[in-house]
Amino acid sequence: MQGRELSPFEARASTRAEQSEGPRAQGAARRLVVGPHRCKSRFCPHCAMPLGLQLRERLRRVLRTFKSVMMLTLTVDPALFPEGPQAAFDFCRERRSVALLVQGLKRRGVLLSGRWASIVEWQQNGYPHWHLIVEADYVPFAALASEWGKNWDESRWGPRPAAGIGQRAVFGSVRFTKTFDAESSEYAANYITKYITKPPKAGYPAWVLDYAASGGRGRRIRRFSTARGFWGGEPSPRINEEATGETREWCTIRERVARCGITSVVFRVEDVVDTETGEVAEEARYLGRVHKTYPELLNALGESARVGGFRRHYCTPAQERVVWGLLYAPDRVESQHDLDQPRAP
Length: 345
Fold this sequence. Notes:
The two termini are 34 Å apart. The chain has two domains: 8-37 and 261-340, no CATH class; 48-237. It is built from twelve helices and nine strands. By secondary structure, it is α+β, with helices and mostly antiparallel strands.
């Protein structure tokens, strides 16, 4: 740089890099970390696995408090919805079919509590079905079929057919998948979350990826749902604006997943020592995004792009100077005001 005056962006990047190195010289572990800007969608082939594993761990802790865990599978009859599978999904969503089923079973006294969790899946024909967890050790089939059959809408399909014991529910099929005792409840968590840790082999139906709810474009499909109070004192693990600190414009699932990893994020990480226990924990502060894919950023730092490209990279002092330069470049994605806003990694 000798013989040439630094531009404002270069001067600012150099100053921030020196400030970043200062605490390191004093022995404090303070460094920059870069990573891909994830879409955090359970439909994403990259994000589904880490999100699913986090959910599995939390679900295990809750299911350990269940006396007995029963898993049920609920489907809808495609013949009732000739308009297509989205019509079936919207009908069950607006009617809150799964929640009302659990309420009905609880009124019958066949559940040990009102706690439940469900995951929505799609069959090859595109129609939805639900895997449901309830706290119960025995549920009569007739009671289950009767409660699911209450979704029958006489204004649409005429008088509700009678359903006897052992017969198929009039609205769709119901079946008992598995029952676990309290000691093996973690297997229930493993079983139900296997459906959301990776995308189906045949992929998601096109209508799901391009979903726009009949009631408005702003509603999203939630793959995992729970009863109110299911998590006890823990916060809900929903992937939304409150959890991430981000405000997203509405977009389809296809559009959201397509944006995964097209920019990179930068965090400042410090090791914080608990004065009482002596434990060391990382504390991250969000700094901003750079307009490069993660493999491009790693190449700019002299690192080889990793397969999948989703592991965080801790920068060396020399790499931090490069990152500061990219972060303050004129074409960076976010405004400078965003640098002062703390975010979770």
